[in-house]
Amino acid sequence: MKTVVTTAYRPTDETKRRAQSTAASLGVSAVERSKRTIFRMHEEEKGDVIVCKKERLELYPVGQSEPFFFHPNSAAFRSKRPLGADPLIEMSGLLPGDAFLDCTLGMASDALIASLVVGEAGRVVGCESDTVIAHIVQEGLKSYQDMPKLHKSMRRIEVVSMNALSYLKGLETDSFDVVYMDPMFTERITEASNFAPLRNNADHGQLTEQWVAEAVRVARKSVVLKAHFRSTDFEAFGFTRRVRPNTKFHFGVIQINKSQ
After folding, report:
1. Which end of the chain has fewer CB atoms within 10 angstroms, the N or the C?
2. Gap between the Cα atoms of 204 and 185, Å rounded
3. 138 with 159: CB under 8 angstroms?
4. Considering Cα of 62, then 3, then 47, then 49, what sign does the dihedral take?
5. Would you state the pLDDT for residue 188?
6. What is the distance between the alpha carbons of residues 153 and 181, in angstroms, rounded to a whole number?
7. Stretch 8-27: mean pLDDT, rounded?
8. 114 near 108, Cβ under 8 Å?
9. What are the residues whose beta carbons fall under 8 Å from the beta carbon of 52, sequence distance 6 or more?
10. CA-CA distance, 217 to 94, in Å (whole number)?
11. Contact in structure between 135 and 24 (CB atoms under 8 Å)
12. What angle do CA 95, 100, 101 make, to 5 degrees?
């Protein structure tokens, strides 16, 4: 799908410069807003529209009236709870100083929780196959101004615009302590409204034996899967499922425990 970059409805010199810079980074065209509505731009430009505002980037996919933009999302309230009791952290065994690979970065909520846990001595890398989404999330992680207590953890996250399997194949064995994957749910979760604008853009690739095998090769401690409670991927790929009553998704783990 074609993508163009523009400014807010009333552009400033700053947003004009940001539009040019964003377009150059993504290798797409920057176009004048000319006071056009997003709907009109979709029709005339025949593609998705990135709007450069002073405080953030917003992506308006074709057919969507609501934008996608970076926000800490669920990590905001998860960070206020004991991190050791977070299901992702509990299942993975992640500790301060560990290296964490998020194969399906999305809104970076899980990567942010992992970054809070591993701290400055650790490392968090997130793969996002869609270059536009990766850019918006990366810029958001670098520039988000609310919730100052999360800033250092956000800034530490490394965003890789690459298919997860391709990235895994290029890694040395035992490169990360924990490898995490949260493929797009095959069944829509209506409560997950923050993801609605991305459903046509995000990678809907499902889990494969090769993906899991590469994850196991790369992980030292564990490989963790998050999936819809109806998913059969846990049993199909050898994950031990943790049933979470009254929730729409479950976690599963393959324990590795390789010596470092």
Report:
1. C
2. 8
3. yes
4. positive
5. 39
6. 20
7. 95
8. no
9. 5, 6, 7, 8, 15, 18, 19, 22
10. 17
11. no
12. 165
